[in-house]
Specification:
This protein is an alpha/beta fold. The protein contains twelve helices and ten strands. Strands 3-2-4-1-5 form a five-stranded parallel beta sheet, with helices on both faces. It has a five-stranded mixed beta sheet with strand order 6-7-10-8-9, sandwiched between helices. The longest helix is centred in the first third of the chain and has 23 residues. It is elongated and about 75 Å long.
Length: about 300
């Protein structure tokens, strides 16, 4: 039989519950002015709703969401009976004028996504832009974010980061995009489908070098898992054991390097005598541990000079 908690823990818990109850009642009693409220919702754990988010959704005139079936579960959990309407990429053009008219009429409108913070890889940018341009209040009700959750548990630098969202599904376009991101002096954060995770990790290693990285899966949920390793190691792991559930990939920034273009040219010149630009670039980038995009640019310069 489980031991009863000490008396002081019971007292502390009751005091906390009482204070939380007081605060949510206070929030519910405050007037909610007209405007568009961007409300963050849990990315998995329903208890991650903030008190302000609960009160905002409960007091709003209407809540717009991506999927009413999904969001109805969340609202029911907190006994929120505010009407739900869909707002997603397929009906945004039709619904946006309606929402703007409701704002013009002085209504309070809440916008939520299926999970996390609205507008982050979700629809809503044009609505916010148009609402602000029309002079309506646009209010953030911050809370859960898969981007920030993965960044903070990834064990990688957090002083500067770049959210790149979902990479293109086709490998060629994905590699081109990664070449554009290679030199950004910040930790990179990506969303990815579980079925493409291993392929994306392989492309990341190929285009960015074998950087330290982390794959965060099912954040805040029962089977949350964060695996940290160099990109090549993560590629091998997830190729053998494909992940399930939502995936966020976090990749360390490029290492500061004193490798000069002259040093890159010195390594490239003999390599280009027997290898294609692509293969020579990969070999030199791996050897000198510099971004492939930089080596490729130097290689093109050598070829141009050789042909002039």
């Amino acid at each position: 039989m489980r031991d009863e908690p000490p008396e002081n823990e019971k007292v502390n818990s009751l005091a906390t519950a009482s204070r939380v109850g007081f605060e949510i009642e206070r929030q519910l009693g405050l007037p909610l002015g007209p405007g568009l409220y961007l409300v963050s919702t849990p990315i998995g754990h329903l208890a991650d709703m903030t008190l302000r988010a609960i009160a905002t959704l409960a007091r709003a005139d209407v809540v717009y969401c991506e999927d009413t079936r999904h969001s109805r579960t969340l609202l029911a959990h907190y006994a929120i009976r505010t009407p739900l309407r869909p707002y997603h990429e397929h009906n945004a053009e039709e619904q946006r004028p309606r929402i703007l008219s409701e704002l013009e009429a002085g209504r309070s409108i809440a916008l939520i996504s299926d999970a996390g913070t609205p507008l982050i890889s979700d629809p809503g940018f044009k609505l916010v832009r148009d609402a602000a341009a029309a002079g309506h209040a646009v209010v953030a009700v911050p809370g859960p974010s898969a981007t920030l959750a993965a960044l903070t548990v990834g064990g990688l630098p957090t002083d500067a980061f770049f959210f790149a969202g979902f990479l293109p599904a086709k490998e060629g376009a994905r590699k081109s995009r990664l070449a554009e991101l290679a030199a950004i002096p910040a930790t990179l954060v990506f969303f990815e489908a579980p079925t493409r995770t291993a392929d994306t990790l392989a492309n990341l290693a190929e285009e960015l070098g074998n950087r330290e990285a982390a794959v965060a899966r099912e954040l805040t949920k029962l089977h949350e898992d964060v695996r940290r390793a160099p990109l090549t190691g993560l590629t091998r792991h997830f190729a053998a054991d494909p992940p399930k559930g939502e995936v966020v990939i976090v990749v360390a920034p490029p290492q500061e390097t004193e490798v000069t273009d002259a040093a890159i040219e010195a390594s490239l010149a003999p390599a280009l005598e027997s290898l294609s630009i692509r293969d020579a670039t990969r070999m030199v980038a791996d050897t000198l541990k510099v971004p492939k995009a930089r080596v490729y640019d130097v290689a093109l310069g050598l070829k141009r000079r050789a042909g002039s």
